[in-house]
Amino acid sequence: MSSESMVTLQERMVHLTEQLSMPLIEVSLIVNRWIKALLSRLEELADEHNESLPENVKNPIPLAGSNNETNDFNYDLDRVLKMVDDDRMDILDTLIRVTIEEEKLSLMSALLFMRNWEFEMRKRLEQVQRPGQLFSPVTFEDGF
Q1: pTM, rounded to two decimals
Q2: How do the domains of the chain map onto residue ranges?
Q3: SS3 sequence, the chain?
Q4: Model confidence at 142, in pLDDT bands (50, 70, 90)?
């Protein structure tokens, strides 16, 4: 895993999400989609070789101090999904795919990278108290 390649992917994703003012829900959905695809392929390869994947690959990074309680608001998931911008999500999806291919990242490296993004998005989702906050643009502090 080239740290330079990871930095490239990180910089591109941060820049694009901020440039497009991508909402938390959209970034979370794309990251989740990538994790599912990468994990599925890695599990297939592990099965073919009678091996198993480590827990840190199979499972999300645990949230420190997470109380696993659900928020008190109700929302219609179908309605939320109808409100996402598919074009904007496709742009992020394409950027991830192209960068992974361009930088020749391994499946494992790409998945572990996405696990870090998943962790960050889950921390933010845990703070959501109203459905409208799902559509708050994702911003990053320097150094993310």
Answers
A1: 0.89
A2: 3-130
A3: CCHHHHHHHHHHHHHHHHHCCCEHHHHHHHHHHHHHHHHHHHHHHHHHCCCCCCHHHHCCCCCCCCCCCCCCCCCCHHHHHHHCCHHHHHHHHHHHHHHHHHCCCCHHHHHHHHHHHHHHHHHHHHCCCCHHHHHCECCCCCCC
A4: confident
